[in-house]
Amino acid sequence: MDPEPGEFLSMLTAEEIEALRAAGRPRRWDRGTTVITEGDTADWVLVLTHGRVKVSSHTSSGTEVVLAVRGPGALLGDMSAVDGSPRSATVTALEPVQGFVVRDFSSFLAAHGRIAVLLMQLVVGRLRDADRKRVEYGAFDTTGRVATRLLELADRYGEQTTTGVRVALPLSQDELAGWTGSSREAVSKALRTLRDRGLIETGRRRVVIHDVEGLRKRAR
What CDD domains does the record point to (predicted)? Predict the structure, then answer.
């Protein structure tokens, strides 16, 4: 499977990808498996090649907050591998996933300067995305945040059909709530509002966006 645009592997040359593969070993996980556990300390990273995962953390009260959904080409666990601090989030397979694990990632970066610079650019991009989401939480209502996340999934995973853009939704409503900083009840109401306006159609683990521009306007 080709890496998603903007993910780590999409930034590398074919030679750099081969060097990264040569430094690692292949792994696979079933759907629902915990790939990385928050609080653990390790020096390895995972380069995802197939499937999608969710990156999440838990509040002191036990509420799960979904930080991101990552797909093919993603680099996971890099912050802990570089600075030696405990893992800052848990990574869970949303579907069967495959990738390769690279141990002693800091040494690999020391030997591949251009890749180290690209990693810096990737981390800066994540920080900018986190800042944007914080602005959304303060400025948008739940329906706006849900619409924004659906558009993000459509841009990355959407499939054009005769009735609209079909998205195989990898998240449950509870997980979507955690991704939008809302309650499950508020997300359910937001989806119903978007359905009633004819913007989307929902089914089991899927959404069809009938009016992308209309959904984009509601997101704003």
Answer: CAP_ED, HTH_CRP
